[in-house]
Design a protein that fits this description.
Length: 308
């Protein structure tokens, strides 16, 4: 049965609320009603300035995949997963949550070029962007008098976003640091792949890879064709490296929205189902169909409905 227009709108509104930061605050207050957002809000506003080219010493973001929206997506998923974990008996202090949210906010700062870096786009830093993000984070937090252990906590979280990183090799400061690190690594992937714009942004991802000299894909279509396989890789990483913390999403949606389903995974699978349809039926004009994904809702019985 095809979902109604209202059901489609509700689904997308929940997955990507209009004001992501306000939703992050709402979720965090479910966990810690008296949470002080001053540190997180200041960092969030500074990162907006960074991506807009209003932060001293840096240029405006010029990558179309790893942009401000992706940072917001990651932040939202971190908040959701921390909330879901707390519903499963995981205890977090206010400091733990502060550091987790701040880590999400700064996790892709490494894509932003300094005023002295003129050639190309920030995509050229893809391979080294985590190290660059850590460097930015260290300087930023040190200037705001964060303790060295707090900076190390955030560094460990940022390391967890590396796709080839062995989590058990990271020297976490505590169980909570490890759990939030795994949440970070999971949220980074969940955020981008559950976005209704995900398929339409894949060509931008290829451009970033190409500029960085990453040879995994022959061309744009090769990356798109291999994306369903990347989802299989991602599910395996969720389970075997990141501790299966994605399972906490379902409890978050149950308590926050009264919906006992993992809407995040459903959103990803809708994207992948539609991509498989494109690969099967519209290889020659795939770009046109990628652009229509955001406007469509596919039924379980007829995933081959064509956009017009």
């Amino acid at each position: 049965m095809k979902p109604s227009e209202k059901e489609t709108d509700d689904f997308h509104r929940i997955i990507r609320p209009k004001n992501i930061y306000e939703e992050v605050k709402t979720i965090t207050k479910l966990l810690l009603p008296n949470f002080d957002f001053s540190l997180v809000s200041r960092t969030y506003q500074d990162i907006i300035k960074l991506f807009k080219g209003e932060f001293v010493g840096y240029q405006k973001c010029d990558t179309d995949y790893h942009n401000l929206r992706h940072t917001q997506e990651c932040l939202l998923e971190v908040a959701r997963l921390i909330h879901g974990a707390s519903l499963n008996g995981k205890a977090f202090s206010e400091k733990d949550v502060n550091l987790g949210l701040i880590s999400a906010i700064v996790h892709d700062a490494g894509y932003i070029k300094t005023i002295d870096e003129q050639d190309g786009t920030g995509g050229k830093f893809t391979i080294v962007h985590i190290d660059r993000s850590i460097k930015f984070m260290r300087k930023y937090l040190a200037q705001r008098d964060f303790a060295s252990d707090d900076i190390q906590f955030c560094k460990n979280c940022l390391k967890c976003t590396g796709l080839t990183v062995k989590i058990n090799k990271i020297k976490f400061l505590s169980y909570e640091n490890e759990l939030i690190g795994k949440i970070m690594g999971t949220a980074d992937l969940l955020g981008q792949m559950s976005d209704p714009s995900y398929l339409n942004k894949l060509p931008f991802l290829f451009k970033e890879f190409h500029e960085a000299g990453i040879k995994l894909y022959v061309d744009e279509f090769d990356l798109i064709e291999k994306t369903p396989g990347f989802w299989e890789f991602t599910k395996d990483r969720f389970t075997n490296e990141l501790g299966g913390v994605d399972r906490y999403l379902r409890d978050h949606f149950r308590v926050r929205w009264g919906i006992d389903r993992d809407l995040g995974r459903e959103a990803i699978e809708k994207n992948i189902d539609y991509l498989n349809y494109i690969l099967q039926h519209h290889r020659s004009d795939y770009r046109r169909f990628l652009k229509h994904r955001e406007k469509m809702e596919l039924s379980e019985s007829n995933p081959a409905t064509s956009p017009h």
